[in-house]
Amino acid sequence: MSAKYSQLNPKYTPVFLTFAYQTGLLRFLMLRYIDGVIQAFGGMLHFGQHATMPMVGYNTTMHRKDGLYRLICHADSL
């Protein structure tokens, strides 16, 4: 049985996340439902005219049709 994530994926630490937030290295985006609970988040890196989202997380218990992954990946343009 294979693991869900590759061992080559970065292991983000609380120290790195704090640094990324405090320095503005990553712009953190969150999607909340009406009850205020965060259902998805992303850490976006901007460079020039380009952007990438190396960090994405979402509530996997929600229905796929809710499209949380797609929504958070496009949240910067909403």
With strands numbered from the N-terminus, the spatial order across the biggest sheet is 1-2-3
* Straight-line distance between termini: 39 Å
The low-confidence parts are none
If you compute it from the alpha carbons, what radius of gyration comes out, rounded to the nearest whole angstrom?
14 Å
Share in helix: 10-25%
Question: What structural class should be given to the helix and strand makeup?
Answer: alpha+beta
Strand and helix order: HEEEH
Q: How would a crystallographer describe the biggest sheet? A: 3 strands, antiparallel
Percentage of residues in DSSP E strands:
25-35%
Number of strands: 3
Query: Which of globular, elongated, flat, extended, rod-shaped describes the shape?
Result: globular
Count of helical stretches: 2
- Mean pLDDT value: 87
What does this structure look like?
21% of the residues lie in helices and 32% in strands. It has helices at residues 14-23, 68-73, and strands at 27-32, 38-47, 50-58. It has a 3-stranded antiparallel sheet. The N and C termini lie far apart (39 Å). A hairpin with a 2-residue loop joins strand 2 and strand 3 (50-58). The chain has a domain at 35-78.
Quick summary:
With 78 residues, the chain is of the alpha+beta class. 21% of the residues lie in helices and 32% in strands.
